[in-house]
Amino acid sequence: MFRLWCGPAAWILGLLWPLSVCGQPALDKLEQELQQPAPAPEPGYLGVTLDDRGEQGLGVRVLAVVQGGPAARAGLLPGDLLTHVDDRPVASLAEFAEMLSPLPAGTRVRFTVQREERTLELEATLAARPAAGRAGQA
Prior knowledge:
- The protein is of the alpha+beta class.
- The chain has helices at residues 8-12, 19-35, 70-74, 93-100; strands spanning 44-45, 48-51, 60-65, 81-85, 88-89, 108-115, 118-125, 127-128.
- It has two domains: 1-36, no CATH class; 44-128, PDZ domain (Pdz3 Domain, Roll).
- Helix content is 25%, strand content 27%.
- Strands 2, 3, 4, 5, 6 and 7 form a six-stranded antiparallel sheet that branches. A two-stranded antiparallel sheet has the order 1-8.
- The longest helix has 17 residues, at 19-35.
- The radius of gyration is 24 Å and the shape is elongated.
């Protein structure tokens, strides 16, 4: 038995049935589906707890690193001072959040870190935020 397929995919695939067969409702449905905005990308997650108090605008201090998270995989450690994100200086926690908050999961980010007397360049790939239990972490 032959079944006429007039769904939106038929239009996209180029199987353009005459308007008299599929009718205006099929065109309306296709137009509606094509006009829907793409889903927003999942925000990126680093997996650190940070503080900028006592740093005099020189960066943000890593207080804790989530085990197995993007920051841990990149080599960030508690006590590190993050001074730059992608070569842009970081003076405060607010600046750090402003730099990272628009970045989606999957974005690679370079950090300049002061660890003891050394300057390190580390790279992390932001991940999707875990489902629960991580409130307050970047």
